[in-house]
Structure formats: C-alpha cells, structure tokens
Amino acid sequence: MSSDADLIKLYSGRILALAADMPRTERLTAPDATARKRSPLCGSTVTVDIALKDGKITDYGQDVKACALGQASAAVVGANIVGCSRDQVQAGRDQLYAMLKEGGPAPDAPFDALAVLEPARDYKNRHASILLAFDATLAALDEAAANA
Predict the structure, then answer these.
(1) Alpha carbon distance, N-terminus to C-terminus of the chain
(2) Strand 45-53 to strand 56-65: parallel, antiparallel, or no bridges (unpaired)?
(3) Residues paired with 57 in a beta bridge
(4) Distance between CA atoms of 148 and 138, rounded to whole angstroms?
(5) Is the terminal CB of the chain with fewer CB neighbours within 10 Å at N or C?
(6) pLDDT the model gives residue 5
(7) Phi-psi region at 27: left, alpha or beta (left = phi > 0; alpha = psi -120 to 50)
(8) Helix (H, G, I), strand (E, B) or coil at 50
(9) CA distance linking residue 36 with residue 64, whole number of Å
C-alpha cells in the first residue's frame, strides 16, 4: 500500500498545471457525435463532443469532472486530438493502458506528454479516470460511424 507521502508526490506540479490549464473545455454547439463515460470506481466523468471530416477529428469539446490525474490526461488528449483518426486515438489509448497496466513506455506522439502520468502505475484505482478521455472519444467516434 502506498503511503500518503507517495500519493502527494504523485500529484506533481506538472500534473497539477495540466489539470489547471485544460484546453477545449467548451462543448460543441453542433457536434457530429457526443459520448459520456464514467468510472464506476471513483465517479469521474468525461463528456466529449467531436466534429469530423474525412475520418479525422476537426473539432473537440470536453466536460471533465475527474481527479487531477484524469484532468491531466484529458488536458493532453484535448491539446492533441484535433487531426487524429480513430486508429490514432485507439493507439494512444492502447499505449496509455499498457503504460499504466503493463509497465510499457509512454504513448507515442501526439500523446507523448502522457508520460507525466507514469507514476500513477502504482495507483490502480486511478487508472479508469486516466483513461476516460480516450474512452469517451472512442465512444463518440463509434457513434459517429454508426450514424454515418
């Protein structure tokens, strides 16, 4: 079990800065798709709106109600998601999952700033919150494909 001091160290200045300066927090007025995902363990939620053209995300809005770790992850996703295809989003999610659960390396660009969350590996109860932005984005992409 990790000590309180370890948990305090987990919330580094960089993580808190990302959480405090999250981009794309305005919901889209006319999205092509919207999805909301919730972590049952901690209650964190992320709602994502996307606009698409030719299979790429052209606009993105998010409403994030999560811990600082989930907010930091959503900040990195929001800052880098425009221009990505579903395959790129899935690859980023898979690499983040592997980093957290399997000791894998940080995700590749454009999501490489998620490396800041490597210390969260030891906090399994935070993993779902960290993955929410990707999970909601993938669900929105799936909704858009189903409605196309």
Answers:
(1) 48
(2) antiparallel
(3) 52
(4) 15
(5) N
(6) 54
(7) beta
(8) strand
(9) 10
Q: Which residues pair with 65 in a beta bridge?
A: 45
Q: Where are the alpha helices (DSSP H) in 1-123?
A: 4-10, 13-20, 68-80, 86-102
Q: 30: alpha, beta or left, given left = phi > 0 and alpha = psi -120 to 50?
A: beta
Q: What is the pLDDT of residues 87-123, one digit of tens each?
A: 999 999 999 999 999 999 999 999 999 999 998 998 8
At 1 the pLDDT is: 42
Locus of tokens 């990195």: 76
Report CA torsion sign: 88, 138, 134, 131. negative
Other C-beta atoms lying within 10 Å of the C-beta of residue 92: 26
Q: What separation in angstroms does the CA of 97 have from each of 26, 61, 73, 90, 129?
A: 27, 23, 12, 10, 11
Cβ neighbours of residue 72 under 8 Å, at least 6 residues apart?
15, 16, 18, 19, 116, 117
79 touches 23 (CB < 8 A): yes
Structure tokens belonging to residue 45: 């939620």
Distance CA 117, CA 18 (A): 11
